[in-house]
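User: My collaborator sent over this chain with a note saying "see what the structure looks like." That's all I know about it. Can you take a look?
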Amino acid sequence: MPEPVVESIEDLLHNGFRYALSLAGDRVSAEDLLQDAWLAVLKAKGPQHRPYLYSAIRSRFLNLNKREKLISVVSLSDVPELEGTIEAGDAFDYFDNALLERALAQLRCVEREALFLLVVEGYTASEISSFTQQPRGTVLSHIHRAKAKVRRFFQSNQIGVTL
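Assistant: Without extra context I'll predict from the sequence alone. Here is the result:
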């Protein structure tokens, strides 16, 4: 894994949010993951750099998934009274990214995570492997499957995409 880069707290939290979003798949859950992880980093007086924050986010995400298998949770998006309550400022982002969000939503969380770390963060498969503690071949398989699913999604919607 590369040496931690010194970055501003704002940049660190922005990158942490993007990583949490790649795991959680929705904005609200990503915000909760980031907030939980950041509070844990501050409470533990841990290093304020990207790998440490990403580990905290990933740990909380995995714990949350274990808990959700035990406890029934109802998403607010499933509540009919809240349907169509996108805020005016979010409408532009929602409509511009709606297809991409739908494509990424069909990926398993490990596929979204691997694709995010590769494409957005620029990590190599070996670095992702050591970060996620998975064999390199497994990481490459997740990346390959994620790219294929996204490609098929856009082809089925007759939109050209290069991955």
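A starting point for your reply to your collaborator: The chain has two domains: 1-85, 91-163.
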